[in-house]
Amino acid sequence: MTVLPYKDKEGSKKEQVAEMFNSISKRYDFLNHFLSMGIDILWRKKAIRQLKADQPKLILDVATGTGDLAIEALKLNPEKVIGVDISEGMLDMGREKMKRLGYEDKIEMSMGDSEQLLFEDNKFDAVVVAFGVRNFQDLEKGLADMQRVLKPGGKMVVLEFSTPTKFPMKQLYSFYSNSVLPLIGKVVSKDNSAYTYLPESVQEFPYGDDFLAILNKLGFKQTTCIPLTFGISSIYTAVK
Ligand SMILES: C[S@@+](CC[C@H](N)C(=O)[O-])C[C@H]1O[C@@H](n2cnc3c(N)ncnc32)[C@H](O)[C@@H]1O
Q1: Which CATH code fits 13-163+205-239?
Q2: What pLDDT score does 181 carry?
Q3: Where do the structural domains in the chain lie, given as residue ranges?
Q4: Which atom of ligand 1 is nearest to the CA of 25?
Q5: Is 114 assigned to a binding site?
Q6: Are the C-beta atoms of residues 215 and 223 closer than 8 Å to each other?
Q7: What span, in angstroms and rounded, lies between the C-alpha atoms of 194 and 148?
């Protein structure tokens, strides 16, 4: 079942996702850190640490949004990070941030769709994506295109929400994400649907072994899953 941000509107998932992120872009960073109590920052750090031994020089950050994962990737001392996203609003916020922090020469932010990346085959040393794959219209197509632009032997790192399975975290998290999070999200972002879409899309999304099975099917090698914070999120790594 495809979970759409705006159930009462027309348009493909991709169009609706872009519209939703355009609508919440100004509040996105604040809500991210507030609703996760800052844990999202630690998750991104851990995701990027998976590439420490690889020392990638050219990194692609898919679904870069406002660029927080791209900024974290600078810790690997790459020559360049290219961030792509389908939401102009998120990219605008990201570009402002890069300007403010003086990262414009290291991080390039451009319009780009994960399912039709405008890069040649085998270009990047590493491809990363945080909280993006759940929003893809066609998950396998997006992952396959990320694989295409990755160099043979290069690593992909995916950070995405998953679902805690054990008592009492399963129950506590379910209450938080289905009741508390949509309410705060709605009031702060002024978007009635965005923070209802979030838990709904997480519930439908494959995680753990199911996500690894998709990566394996696509031909990725050495696939691993690292659950984070009682399984609220997971990091997946895969080699081309
Ligand atoms: C939850 S945000 C994550 C942003 C950022 N990576 C972070 O860690 O905060 C998800 C982003 O995915 C983008 N997105 C969704 N589908 C996409 C696609 N097919 N191609 C590129 N970006 C996409 C959205 O526009 C949005 O900016």
Answers
A1: 3.40.50.150
A2: 85
A3: 13-163+205-239
A4: 27
A5: yes
A6: yes
A7: 31
- What does the pLDDT look like over 99-122, one tens digit per residue? 999 999 999 999 999 999 999 999
CA 131 – ligand 1 centroid, Å? 7
- In the reported structure, the alpha carbon of residue 57 is separated from the centroid of ligand 1 by a whole-number distance in angstroms of 23
- Indicate the burial class of 209 (C-beta count within 10 angstroms; 0-12, 13-18, 19 or more): exposed
Instruction: Judge contact between 135 and 17, C-beta under 8 A.
Output: yes
Q: Which DSSP symbol is given to 177?
A: I
Place of tokens 């990194």: 59
Ligand 1 atom nearest residue 64's Cα: 6
User: According to the annotation, is 113 in a ligand binding site?
Assistant: yes
| H helix intervals, 81-179 | 88-101, 139-149, 169-175
The average pLDDT across 208-221 equals 98
Is 131 touching ligand 1 by the criterion CB < 6 Å? yes
Is the pLDDT score of 217 beyond 90?
yes
Q: How far is CA 58 from the centre of its chain?
A: 18
Mutate to test the pocket of ligand 1, among 14, 28, 131, 161 (most ligand atoms within 8 A of CB): 131
